Input
Amino acid sequence: MIHAVCRRGRPVAMSRALSLDLRTRVLKSVADGMSHRQACERFGVSAASVSRWRRRTEVQGDARPKALGGDRRSGRIEACKDLILGVLAETPDITIEELRRSLASHGHTFGFGTIQRFFERHRVGGRGSVQAHWFGSDAPRCRARSTI
Output
């Protein structure tokens, strides 16, 4: 299926948060006695959205939307930062697979790419350091190919 693309390069059908103004008007109508269904028909939003906004207003004080997109799961590996950096300090020539096994022995399982992104965020490794060993025995061969 071919999607139309807007100026920012994303498909037209991608979700965006509805404005705070619209949310406020919908919630004011509900507070003034309108049912969720009536409000959703009048303002062109879903009944589930009205319920969600009302709940959000009760919890956080207003109906501001949550952030869309971005990283939502790196907190899990960030919680193990001290453990990971400790293992790397003890064994600086450890491969990612060996690090994964070490973390698994402590009850933490992470994918290869998750650990790579952790290294990039914390600038672990680099030339002449841990990075040469990240990829196991293939590292010298991969590095030699990349210099051509």
Q: What stands out?
A: The two ends are 39 Å apart (CA to CA). The chain has two domains: 1-69, 74-143. Residues 100 and 111 are 8 Å apart (CA to CA). The first helix runs from residue 20 to 31.
